[in-house]
Amino acid sequence: MKRLKGKIVSDKMDKTVVVEVTRLKKHPKYERRFKVSKRYKADDRDGKYKGKAGAIIWIEETRPISREKRWKAI
Prior knowledge:
By secondary structure, the chain is mainly beta. The chain has strands at residues 3-10, 16-26, 33-43, 56-61, 71-73.
């Protein structure tokens, strides 16, 4: 199972948090490193992270829960 570490950018939805994961990527030609970020919708059934925008959390890959949710906040 994959685990990613990211920052909560939105907790306004019910039972869902949006987590932004940032990583460093290397340019193929110039070999300079730059930041790339991606947002994932993670399941938060028990409301553990409600009202905690800006918190750093771990998300874990899981079965498809809805059309866009394939991650679970742990």
